[in-house]
Amino acid sequence: MVGNNLKLLRKKKKLSQEEVATALGLHRSTYSGYENGVASPNIENLVAISAYHQISLDDLLKNDFSQFTEADWLKVLNEFGNRASGKQLRILTSLVNEENEELIELIPEKARAGYTAGYEDLSFFETLPHFRLPFLSNDKKYRAFTIMGDSMPPLPSGTIVVGEFVQDWTMVSSGTPCIVITKNDGIVFKHFHNDIQAANRVLLSSANPLYEPYFVEVDDVLEVWKFRAYIATDLPEVQPDESQVSLALRTLQKEILLLRTKLN
Q1: Torsion, CA 183, CA 204, CA 124, CA 132, rounded to 10
Q2: 170-202 tens-digit pLDDT
Q3: Is 112 within 8 Å of 85 (Cβ atoms)?
Q4: Among 18, 118, 219, 256, which residue's CB has the most CB atoms within a 10 Å radius?
Q5: Which DSSP symbol is given to 107?
């Protein structure tokens, strides 16, 4: 069924086997074998095919495209774009106070593991701490997360970061610090690099160069929260860049020279 699905997808887009194979970095004979059922694509090639055609792996592996109506095709081919841009409904559970003002729910360290399972469950949030920050907009939705580890200096492990809910992921500028909720990794605080329009994925990178950046498929993303504020009990240790160090050294040299002049 997968081979037949690949053939129908290609013909739906009026592409040749050579064009699809080239786009995927495969030999035409290899790709032809996938379509004809002579060979099966490995997981890396399945992911690449999914991204190339902008459909989910579930649709590619579980559906029989030969039974699709035009309405079915329209839904499948637009699924990735609709999901990333927020055109599909995102269920967002939220708490309010007696004045009907939205509260900021805090996801502490002990609740991080349960968030991906309970992020749509009101009872999950009712057990968590919540608060308001008067300097944030009343027209936006915010949530706070406790970050762990040393991947985003100067913020230390245990810092609470407050994020603004993002409906349209395609509008997030590359390099923006975000709290990203994924199916596989749970809650991560990273720099968000947008590769959605080109390849239906995002690149997540750390401020700490010891951590390698990595790609996450759009289908694996549950929520995106743009960084807006942080709460910490300790002052972050700011690491000066090379220009700052050079300026400090030059200033120190001048002060030493002035001191020697006065002593002489």
Answers
A1: -160
A2: 899 999 999 999 988 999 999 999 988 777 789
A3: no
A4: 219
A5: E
Name the phi and psi angles at 115, rounded to 5: -65, -45
Helix-strand-coil percent breakdown of the chain, rounded to 5? 40, 20, 35
Residue whose structure tokens are 């706070």 = 144
Pairing of strands 221-231, 176-182: antiparallel
Q: Report the number of secondary-structure helices (H) and strands (E) in the chain.
A: 11, 9
CA atoms within 13 A on the CB side of 218: 26
Rounded to 5 degrees, φ, ψ at 173 are -70, 140
Angle at 239 between CA 234 and CA 242, to 5 degrees: 170
Please name which of 12, 90, 4, 87 lies closest in space to residue 52, comparing C-alpha atoms.
12
Both tokens of 52, joined, read: 């190339």
